Amino acid sequence: MRKPLIAFYILTSLIFFSSCVSQKKVVLLQNNPEVKEQANADELLKTFELKQPVYTLKPGDVLSLKVQSTTPTEYNFLSTGAATFGATDPILDGYTLDTEGNILLPAIGKVNLNGLSMPEARIRVTEALKPFLSDPTVNLRLLTFRYTVIGEVVRQGQFTTYQDNINLMEAIASAGGLSPYSNRGNIKLIRYENGQAKLYAFSLLDNQTIAQTNFFLQPNDMIVVDPLPAKNVRENVLTNVGFGLSILTSLSLLLARFL
């Protein structure tokens, strides 16, 4: 009857010792870490040519607009900006590009921004304002850059960024980072383009991922982080094995007591 007990103790010991990590490999910025194979901060490991796509505006995009000018405030019809960042939703106060890619500005009318990058759009709006305001300085922000992160991350959900050049790792970081059981070698990206859903896969174990074009996100992208097989083993197999061993141990103790 002791064999189930012995097996239980052996399994428990293996799990315990395999999970132990030296403090020297955990504590940050130690005075004298004495850990082998440490990195050298002044050594350049590799250089990558980034394939960062330039986002161009399209119908349906929403922009915040704030304009500063030497024109007196009472005559600057855009001095307070179109978006308020606070209790209200800035998207509700933003300028939406219509089906032709135009925004409608007070006193000016339509300004077409379709197909322009954000820097080009700032220049276009600035030129449109010059006949009406003195030395206008335009601040434009894209309000509709949303993306979704689901799966093995700390905090799943939909996120909004005010930058138009966010990459895959930054997006995962905004979701709290990867969980201990995330499959870093197979992270999926779903992208919606022209009525199609396109599926891509990345490996964060390979540093060449940084140089891929799709490393940078597009609005409405969805990142899916799958779990490692070890999660199923941990949550199901080991749980069932432990439960079975506990039953055997209880039965062994009962039998030993009455026999």
List the helices and strands and how they pair.
Elements: H1 2-18, E1 62-68, H2 90-93, E2 95-96, E3 102-105, E4 109-112, H3 118-129, E5 137-142, E6 145-151, E7 157-161, H4 168-174, E8 182-193, E9 196-202, E10 221-227, H5 229-258
Parallel strand pairs: 6-10
Antiparallel strand pairs: 1-2, 1-5, 3-4, 6-7, 8-9, 8-10
Helix pairs in contact: 1-5
Structure overview:
27% of the residues lie in helices and 24% in strands. The chain starts with a helix and ends with a helix. The model is unreliable at 81-87 (pLDDT under 50). The longest helix is centred in the C-terminal third of the chain and has 30 residues, at 229-258. The protein contains five helices and ten strands. It is of the alpha+beta class and 259 residues long. It has helices at residues 2-18, 90-93, 118-129, 168-174, 229-258; strands at residues 62-68, 95-96, 102-105, 109-112, 137-142, 145-151, 157-161, 182-193, 196-202, 221-227. Strand 6 and strand 7 (157-161) form a beta hairpin.
Output the keywords.
259 residues; alpha+beta; wza like fold; Outer membrane lipoprotein wza fold like; 5-stranded mixed β-sheet; 10 strands; elongated
Shape: elongated
The radius of gyration computed from the alpha-carbon positions, rounded to a whole number of angstroms, is 28 Å
CATH architecture of the domain at 145-227: Roll
Strand order of the largest sheet: 7-6-10-8-9
Poorly predicted segments: 81-87
Order of helices and strands: HEHEEEHEEEHEEEH
CATH superfamily of the domain at 145-227: Outer membrane lipoprotein wza domain like
Q: Specify the helix fraction band.
A: 25-40%
What is the terminal separation in angstroms? Answer: 11 Å
Number of helices: 5
Strand content: 15-25%
- How many strands in all? 10
Q: Biggest sheet, in brief? A: 5 strands, mixed
The chain-level structural class is alpha+beta
**Nearest-integer average pLDDT:** 80
CATH class of the domain at 145-227: Alpha Beta
Under CATH, the topology of the domain at 145-227 is which?
Outer membrane lipoprotein wza fold like
